[in-house]
Design brief:
This protein has 132 residues and is an alpha+beta fold. It contains two helices and nine strands, in the order E-E-E-E-H-E-E-E-E-E-H. The protein has one domain: Nucleoside Triphosphate Pyrophosphohydrolase (Alpha-Beta Complex). Helix content is 16%, strand content 38%.
């Protein structure tokens, strides 16, 4: 089975990153994640991330360089290929349009949040100052 293509933004403000909590009604409820989503057929990853950030946060983002990409295989058999991009600039004010909560956090505090399994290695690397 082909992995689901997913893009996510590492929105950076000073030394903080924007993290988002899923609602109770989404798959993997109440887990924290970085904003983003699925790449649609025929869509370029950068275009997909720009679209997702507008749908989820109401911003027009300037997508920066790819920070990392990884593949994660879930125990139930599903797999995702994740691409993470740095975002330093955007137009508009961040609005929470789909999440239970959005929050700016210091990178050292990231491991205190209950992130999606697929994000855990990235969260540890960010907290340790290895990326960004």
């Amino acid at each position: 089975m082909k992995p689901k293509q997913v893009v996510a933004a590492l929105l950076v403000r000073e030394d903080k990153l924007l993290i988002c909590q899923r609602t109770r009604h989404q798959p993997m409820p109440l887990k924290w994640e970085f904003p983003g989503g699925k790449v649609e057929a025929g869509e370029h990853p950068v275009e997909a991330l720009r679209r997702e950030l507008e749908e989820e946060l109401g911003i027009q983002a300037r997508i920066g360089k790819e920070v990392t990409h990884l593949r994660y295989d879930y125990k139930n058999g599903g797999a995702v290929e994740l691409q993470f991009f740095r975002v330093d600039e955007y137009a508009g004010e961040i609005e929470n349009l789909v999440f239970r909560e959005v929050r700016w956090v210091e990178r050292a505090e990231l491991p205190q949040y209950d992130f999606l399994e697929a994000d855990l290695t990235l969260v540890r690397d960010l907290a340790a100052g290895k990326l960004l």
